[in-house]
Amino acid sequence: MRRDRMQQQRFELKYLIPESTALLVRDFVRSYLEMDEYSVGRPNYSYPVHSLYLDSHELKLYWDTINGSKNRFKLRLRYYSTNPDTPVFFEIKRRMNNCILKQRGGVRQDSVGLLLSGHLPDPDHLVSKSPNQLVAIQRFCNLMDQVHAKPRIHIFYMREAYVSDNDEVRVTMDRTVYAEPNLGFSVKTEMKNPIKSFNNDVILELKFTNRYPDWFHHLVHRFHVMQCGAAKYVESIQGIGHERIGADIPVVEQPPRLSRSW
User: Fold this and answer.
1) Is the pLDDT of residue 251 over 50?
2) Which of 4-8, 37-41, 117-121, 173-177 has the lowest mean pLDDT?
3) Among 36, 43, 218, 242, which residue is least crowded by beta carbons within 10 Å?
């Protein structure tokens, strides 16, 4: 099983940059961080990331992000393969003021459909027997039930990642973000007719758990990058359209795209 490098509590800053700048940022970052083990040896130093986002029929979690609700969260399944031996992470991504909090647990592939359809989580569904993993899955299912969330969108992208030895600092660059509806209770990697988000821009994310590193400041000024919103879920819904994901929301003027940071 792949090593879990998730930072449970962190700050993150996002930037949209062209590929030409991304190549320069790559060289700069390598002076400070090591390449993530899953980027090593891969084409363009990137590995595939898949996410299945859940939301209510009215897209409550989407609108909480658009409206900048102070303490909001997202529900998603994060996975890297549909190999039966690989886990699917049920993940809660919560924003508390300016801090990002994550909680997740690894679920066996053959148990994903049961949990998404409302089955109560059981230790046998999990990859690990750790109590913390079961608590995370129970919390996810509780929130899913509270907001009546169901699968809505499958999002795929390629990630280039760098990390410090203590995992306190992480830099990622995400490319080729694609999305399409997935209303079923299973995960998949193939896409039939996806839309492409963010054009050909690269999403640069600077992540840290404690103090903002001085060299982040140098990176931002050296390459003249400007912090912005780059929420993959929000951008994907706006590109696909709510009617294609089974949502029932009022017909209103769409908000500006890329309006929020996650």
Assistant:
1) no
2) 4-8
3) 43
| Residue listed under structure tokens 């190999």 | 83
Per DSSP, what are the bridge partners of residue 163?
Answer: 34, 170
Q: 126: which strand partners?
A: 107
pLDDT band at 3 (very low <50, low <70, confident <90, very high): low
Residue 233 identity (one-letter amino acid):
Y
CATH of 9-245, one of 3.20.100.30, 3.90.1210.10, 3.40.50.720, 3.10.350.10: 3.20.100.30
Residues of the chain by 3-state class (helix, strand, coil), percent to 5: 25, 35, 40
CA distance 88 to 105: 8
| Extended strands (E) in the chain | 9-17, 34-35, 47-55, 71-79, 88-96, 99-107, 150-163, 169-181, 195-197, 202-208
Q: Any idea which residue has 């990697």 for tokens? A: 189
pLDDT for the residue 260: 44
Distance, in Å, from the CA atom of 193 to the CA atom of 187, rounded to the nearest integer, reads 16
Residue 208 vs residues 115, 152, 201, 213: alpha-carbon distances, Å? 32, 30, 23, 8
Please check the confidence at residue 255 and state whether its pLDDT lies above 50.
no
pTM score above 0.85 = yes
Rounded to whole angstroms, the maximal C-alpha distance in the chain is 51
Burial class for 106, CB neighbours closer than 10 Å (0-12, 13-18, 19+): buried
Query: Residue 14 in contact with residue 229, Cβ under 8 Å?
Result: yes
Q: Is the predicted pLDDT of residue 6 greater than 80, yes or no?
A: no
